[in-house]
């Protein structure tokens, strides 16, 4: 009888352990039929997200109804782009044909292009820009290609941001002290075989003239960036903890974003200003995201979140800082959670974060498997709540 009871206990413990392992694997996306996401977009109203993974699976995510639909299996992983103020998104297939498709599955428009490593299109679909894997940037497609930048590749990490008036290109940066070079005169369309790296790093372009407005300095290494919804600020960060923003109407006004522990470094005094730091709880102090930045996303028209790199051996460092445009001091903290781990485990994953400032929705990829995490931000309470974990 004793041996029988012992065996039952062993079987019971093993069964419980198997359930726990299975649950952990499911919660962390190991059972998903799609792979890790490489690019992600969200509709302006926050109702739909669309993603592409490493295997070329194009997935539509219906957020209110919590439904997942695989729409294609042949997509270019870097090509997801949701068109502003619509339920239409843009992607490229593995034969380099770009498609504009709606959330019902209907193809609205298709056109050929080179293999893109990043592209964007205006709300009225009349202005299309794209970058290739060599970092060259063009307006238009097919026989109507107009070069914007053809000098030395901007970098192995390409962010293209398009607004009503501006284009922002962000690539691998080399640190310089000056805030900006206004009206740079180097020719971005360099016909010579000898290239000059004339606009690597962060560059703001005039959408109408296709000319550079300014080069923005201060970042170093893998860099990500975006333009605020009101087109008044540019925010950038990199893998060397250089997080900053520029006022577009006065680009020499560069603000260094505050560090949750040290405050803001004063370049003149070479000391840290801690005067407006928010006191940290023990949990916040121990689990703060590192200052090495993977992505930014706007949670409202004015508030944005900084998402730091998460190491595999410290998955609980998931507490992120919230800032307001024009103010370099941290406004508050939110916790993105570690189950499942978000896709902040790679500096090349900035395209796996998308947000709807109007709906206060943030969507992230997952570090393991092809799922997404969806969060709802409450501006009044400054709280971020996870509302859907999808696999």
From TrEMBL:
What keywords tag this UniProt record? Membrane, Repeat, Transmembrane, Transmembrane helix, WD repeat
Where does the chain cross the membrane?
Answer: 12-31
Keyword Disulfide bond applies: no
Residue windows of the WD repeats? 30-71
Which Pfam family, any one, appears in the UniProt record? Answer: WD40
This protein's name: Uncharacterized protein
Could you tell me which species this protein originates from?
Rodentibacter genomosp. 2
> According to the entry, what is the taxonomic lineage of the organism?
Bacteria, Pseudomonadati, Pseudomonadota, Gammaproteobacteria, Pasteurellales
């Amino acid at each position: 009888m004793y041996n029988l009871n012992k065996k039952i206990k062993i079987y019971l413990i093993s069964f419980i352990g198997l359930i726990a392992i299975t649950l952990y694997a499911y919660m962390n996306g190991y059972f998903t039929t799609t792979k890790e996401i490489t690019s992600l977009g969200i509709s302006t109203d926050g109702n739909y997200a669309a993603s592409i993974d490493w295997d070329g699976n194009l997935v539509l995510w219906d957020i209110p109804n919590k439904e997942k639909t695989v729409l294609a299996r042949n997509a270019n992983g870097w090509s997801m782009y949701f068109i502003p103020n619509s339920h239409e998104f843009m992607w490229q297939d593995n034969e380099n044909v770009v498609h504009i498709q709606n959330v019902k599955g209907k193809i609205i428009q298709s056109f050929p292009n080179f293999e893109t490593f990043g592209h964007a299109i205006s709300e009225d679909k009349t202005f299309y820009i794209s970058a290739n894997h060599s970092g060259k940037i063009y307006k238009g497609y097919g026989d109507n290609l107009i070069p914007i930048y053809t000098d030395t590749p901007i970098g192995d990490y390409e962010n293209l941001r398009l607004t009503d008036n501006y284009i922002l290109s962000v690539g691998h940066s080399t640190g310089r002290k000056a805030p900006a070079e206004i009206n740079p005169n180097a020719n971005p369309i360099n016909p010579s075989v000898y290239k000059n790296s004339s606009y690597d790093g962060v560059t703001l372009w005039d959408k109408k003239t296709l000319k550079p407005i300014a080069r923005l300095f201060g970042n170093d290494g893998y860099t990500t960036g975006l333009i605020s919804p009101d087109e008044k600020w540019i925010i950038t960060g990199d893998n060397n903890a250089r997080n900053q923003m520029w006022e577009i109407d006065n680009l020499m006004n560069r603000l260094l974003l505050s560090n949750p522990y040290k405050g803001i470094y004063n370049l003149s005094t070479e000391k840290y200003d801690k005067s407006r730091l928010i006191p940290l709880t023990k949990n916040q102090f121990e689990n703060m995201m590192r200052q090495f930045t993977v992505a930014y996303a706007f949670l409202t028209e004015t508030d944005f979140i900084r998402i730091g790199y998460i190491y595999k051996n410290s998955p609980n460092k998931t507490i992120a800082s919230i800032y307001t445009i024009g103010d370099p001091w941290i406004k508050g903290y939110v916790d993105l959670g570690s189950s499942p781990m978000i896709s902040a485990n790679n500096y090349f994953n900035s395209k796996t974060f998308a947000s709807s400032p109007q709906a206060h929705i943030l969507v992230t990829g997952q570090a393991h498997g092809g799922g997404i995490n969806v969060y709802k931000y409450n501006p009044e309470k400054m709280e971020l709540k996870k509302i859907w974990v999808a696999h």
